[in-house]
Design a protein that fits this description.
mainly alpha, 5 helices, 2 strands
Length: about 120
């Protein structure tokens, strides 16, 4: 698992976002086992307590499921998986639109720019 950490956001939040992105793209599939807390801490070279906090938050959000003596797994709830995807799309779109509004770009220009950028890959 590759994750480039930054100093602007709490590490546990970056771990959660990474999992959400991987789930939204299908890189992590419903029911798939995730690394143990210790394994992930070693893989990312971060404190195990940070991973524990991220996993706890993901459990609370219904993103992963943990049962006694079994590895944690990605949720199989399709509604949760779809809502993650929509959340990521909405957050990115909102941030982009706010930036365009700040520099007074007309909506037609925004749409054209998005279509052109998307077509270029």
């Amino acid at each position: 698992m590759k994750l480039e950490l930054n100093n602007r956001e709490p590490i546990y939040m970056q771990v959660i976002m990474h999992f959400k992105q991987q789930m939204a793209t299908g890189a992590l599939k419903a029911g798939e086992e995730v690394p143990s807390r210790r394994e992930l801490a070693v893989m990312l070279n971060i404190n195990p307590n940070t991973v524990q906090k991220a996993y706890k938050e993901m459990e609370d959000l219904g993103l992963i499921k943990t049962e006694r003596n079994f590895p944690s797994t990605i949720t199989q709830d399709e509604q949760v998986l779809q809502s993650i995807r929509m959340q990521l799309i909405n957050e990115a779109t909102t941030a982009y639109i706010e930036t365009m509004k700040k520099i007074n770009v007309p909506v037609e220009e925004v749409v054209r720019a998005v279509k052109e950028s998307y077509a270029q890959g």
